[in-house]
Amino acid sequence: MALLVGATVWGDSTWLLQDLDKLPTLAEQVSARIEAVRTALAAGAGVGAAVTLLLAVRRQRHQELATAHTTHDATERRTSELYTKAADQLGSDRAPVRLAGLYALERLGEHTPALQQRVVDVICAYLRMPFTAPAKQDRHVKIRAAQRAARAGAARPTADHGRQPHEERQVRLTAARILANHLRYQPPPVRRWWQLRRASPNARHWPGIRLDLNGATLISLDLRGCRVSDAGVGSATFTFQAAFGGARFTGTAWFAGVTFTHEASFKGATFIGTAWFNQATFTREAEFNGVTFTGDADFFGVTFTGDVGFGEATFTGGAEFSEATFAGRASFNSVSFTGDARFDGAAGLEQAELHGVRVTSAEGVTLSWPPEWLVEKSADDWQTLRLAAGVEGTGAAGGGPVPKQGD
Questions:
Q1: How far is CA 265 from CA 12, 15, 284, 287, in A?
Q2: Which end of the chain is more exposed for a tag (fewer CB within 10 A), N or C?
Q3: End-to-end CA distance of the chain
Q4: Which Gene3D superfamilies match (predicted)?
């Protein structure tokens, strides 16, 4: 810096002292030389001050960067510690500790968006762990168990008497609720003209989440209105009601081999990618009314033990129902098939409801219907379906139950 200041003073003074000999008097020459030296020194001082300020700014910037890196490293270490501790809590034998681990993971995902997918992966991995639902006991059985425990000298039933499975059930219900709370989408509030700030988006919603619940035992899963990227639920078992009404699956939805032991509702859901339900089993009523399948819908070999409704559903891609079994009433009222549709080997559709079904008449589309269904041309370049005259009955008109085979 000293060299720079000296060079500035020397350069300015040399330039300013030029042609001073041309002044008429000695006094004017001396005065001009003094002013030139003073100006050169002032310029040198200014350069020195500017360099000093620049060095101070660089030093301050370096300190800020060092502080930011230190803070970032400390935050990363703290986040890793919280994540590890929460994951360890899920392995505890005590239900309250496991619940604390779940809530800690949820809080971590809320404050660290980059970890949201990892938090969901840990919760899904926990739900995939083997679990046997506790058997229901009536009041008399519980009283006798408590009396036996009292005679044995125990103050209360221990985990060996079935307490632990009931606690684990509550932990799993909590895990499912955490997933649903952050997958459920709500549009941001509308900004009014008198509001200065823009309405903030739904902070609770975690976008772009993938679910891996393959093989899990799920209790009363409620994903109504949720948005999921990819959903892997293959070979899972739903031990209570499953609600997916209004859900939106933007990627692949894998429900192959799933067992629904109670009612399953997908009313109004949207499947953007391929929806796989092949070899799934619906033990009770299944509702697909108003569902939109933008990609292919694969129901190959599916079993509907109870009633199933596809009313007003839209199949834009291929619809595969080959080898499917419909043991209860099947409703396809107002369904639209705009792509391939295959029902080869499907059983139990002799009394299906087909009011208002619309089928594309485009060339190159593969259509295969049950022998009891007839295709008719319509006036708007679409085709319609109806039951053959010999099999029409109360089921086709939406009346009484479908008669069992052999009745």
A1: 87, 90, 11, 5
A2: C
A3: 106
A4: E3 ubiquitin-protein ligase SopA (2.160.20.80)
